[in-house]
Amino acid sequence: MNYNLVAETIVKHCGGLVNLGHVTNCMTRVRMTIHDMKNVDMKALRAIEGVLGVVEDDTLQVIVGPGKSSKVTILINERLKGGASPPSSEDVGLKAKAARESAKKQTPVKKILKHIANIFVPILPPLIAAGILMGINNLLVNSATSYAMMHQIAAIGDLSPAQVILEQRHLTGVIHFFDIVSKGLFSFLPIYTGVTAAKEFGGTVVMGGLLGAITIAPQLTQFGLTPGQGGLIGVIFCVWLMCWLERKIRRVIPDVLDVVLTPTIVLTIMASALLFIIMPAAGVVSDAILHGMNGLLSTGGLAAGFVLAALFPFLISLGLHQGLIPIHLEMINATGHAPLFAIQIMSNAGMVGAATAVLLLTRDPVMRNIAKGAIPTSILAVGEPTIFGVNIPAGFAFITGSIGAGFGGMIVVLLGVTTNGVGAAGLSALPLIADGKYLQYVLAWLTGCAIAFALTYVTGKLRGYDKETLPA
N or C: which end of the chain has fewer CB atoms below 10 A? Predict the structure, then answer.
């Protein structure tokens, strides 16, 4: 990809630099706040070579793929710093009006999920990295444990049989390194979540991190609480209240005393609310969610696996899938595993299978080029390139791909596949698979991919998709 050309063309078709507000990115999308949507040429944006799709929501999201989104965003922001004139009062008014109209269209549930997604998008890259390192660490430890059992290795002193093998293989230091790095994220995740939540809700970011730190303090037992009680749900709710309270108090505190009194009052009130109200209540809610999800998976069986996996492509297409990250992380904190995430990433298999069928069926050279680039990316990492670049434009392929994903979800439940981390999909999710069930994961992924391919190919043939006239 010519990143400079893509960035320049995106800016051009978005109405120029003066029409851009805040520009950021997630794993696959360049997310832009637009002053006036009337100045955006959506058709031209979608036609840019390298752009896989465009989603219009509370922000304008241009999908370019993993890795590429961050590079394009950096280039756009460099242009903004160097050449954007401040928006006029008319532009500001249009932006405020557009924001109000967008807010009216969103349901409360969608608003909440959007906030949660925005909170966790900045944490996703280190989450993926820590999960992969944890997976490699588990693979090494499990391998040593299996070898010790097969060869009846005895413990030596304080070393377990597995530790003896790791010592012989000179891997003890490596194991400690992976353990420290991965736990450095998962152990202090409430702090990072508090920081990004405060940024999302417009409060003091370090104050948000401090409230997150309180939830994992070992001294909590003195108040009848356990570290981590209420999980990330409690942290997010507490930080939201903190940001609201901070704005209210700042209005009445004299400027000369603001830097001292405002944080002191806010911290005292919110820490008290956190310890005596929010953590106990959030603990009940968190436990109910975990029991509900585990109950659904245990009693719903294969049907639950099918329905959940088939629905995930729709959540991804709406940008709401990140809203499930707190549930995945709560499952990891409570049980060490995230079975729901293993089902979720079967959406990747279904979308790859459907896109492969479209590649073989289509007569459109543009679609073929997009599919050739999107399919390998989705096999390795995330499904958005095939979702937005191939399957949604094809129409029926998105439905057949989702059905194929459902069958992959059934195999996940049948074989008991789960993960010990979140964030990655496709082949890059292999190190996240728990209990060494790598072959079972591959089998589930291939099942979803194969069924999606077959359904899409047959449906395309029946619809005459392979005979459709090329666009002029």
Answer: C
